[in-house]
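User: My collaborator sent over this chain with a note saying "see what the structure looks like." That's all I know about it. Can you take a look?
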Amino acid sequence: MKAKFLGSTILLTSLLSATTSELAIRHRESQGVGYNQGYSSLDYFLSAQGEENQFIFNLRAHLFNDARAAGNIGAGWRYSLYNDSSRIGVQLFYDFRDYSHFFANQIGSGIEWISKNLDIRVNGYLPVGVHENFHDKKFQSFSGNQVLIKKRFSAALPCIEGEVGTAAAKPFYFAVGSYYLFQEKHRALSTGRALGAKVRFDIDLGQYCTLGALATYDHIFHTRVQGVLTVNIPLGPKKKQKTSKKPSRNLELVPIVRNEIIPIQTRKKSKTPLTSASEEFRDFIFVDNTAPSGGSGTFESPFSSLKEAEKNSNPGDVIYVFAGDGTPHLMDEGIVLKKDQTLASSGSKLEIDELVIPAQTPGQNPVLTNVHPNEPVVKNPGKSKLSNFYFMNPWEYLSNYDFQSYSTDYIQTPSFHQPSDWDDPEWKTWVDLSSPTLTD
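Assistant: Without extra context I'll predict from the sequence alone. Here is the result:
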């Protein structure tokens, strides 16, 4: 038992003596490829060195200037060649980034060849999980028979990059390289597809401090220059260095060099027509009883009567009715809706195809009625929210209606049947509830 315990102790001691670790505190300013702010980092580097094999664990945490976070966790393996005059290595990392529109994740891997004077590195990055966000639901204006919106598409970009660097002129380090950002596309908006170049420069100010600079250029993010300050804190007992006239580069402590931040690009496009889920234009037919007769149903030249909108609309259209003069004038013959049509009021917000159109005349709803006996005010309500309208019985319109004194207060009296009172038989006479697609 004692012999086993002693053997285990000797083995553990030898492993600990072959392990080195370092903590780096770093700040990078300012914007880089795929991000627009500087950030501060904590970088923990742990190395377990064998006779020919080196195993690396690397953990990095980043905090942007706007308090959003990012991070990397990964492991690497290096193998010594030619009496440790050079090493080959591979790495695998998981990266994440908290972006304003989504939480990005990616897997990164790389290969490297490092030596006393020359390094060659190639890294690839592949976004995984939710790595894009498409938003085309911001209302801008009406135009013609359409709604103009603003589209926005943000995506984490797959990337491959490489560099060649030299430490021959110690304490200086120079590297040049290139990168390619692959394309991501959604609904005619695309990101990425750019070839870039980069130059990196570091100066070692001693065991504890490093200054650096990085410059990149591509046609998406253009020229971006960063300054980097790193403070290195060795952890554990200090190792004795072999004395020599010119200290050689310690390959065991060469950091893993890779892109820390997931590149994200956002594309915006303004004043584009709203389309339905089937990518077809969503047509709006506008009605305003104060408009001159002979209108075309556009926003600039609306129809003056509800019946004109009925006759000149197609299935799937939105019939958008303005409050007008607040009376049933030219709104008194009811309307028969076609398949999948929406009857919308300017007095309330409209939610359609995940777009929210704010009320154009807040609190002022159109007034509808039907002077024809035994005909409903609205037939086949379809996708309409009838609670956004005021409805008037035709006998009140014919008997009591006074164009001069008619007011909003008057039409809100209990004699008007509101859509909340579905069980009222009289209400069912004037609004046909036969459609199964009623949304109210």
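A starting point for your reply to your collaborator: The longest helix spans residues 2-17.
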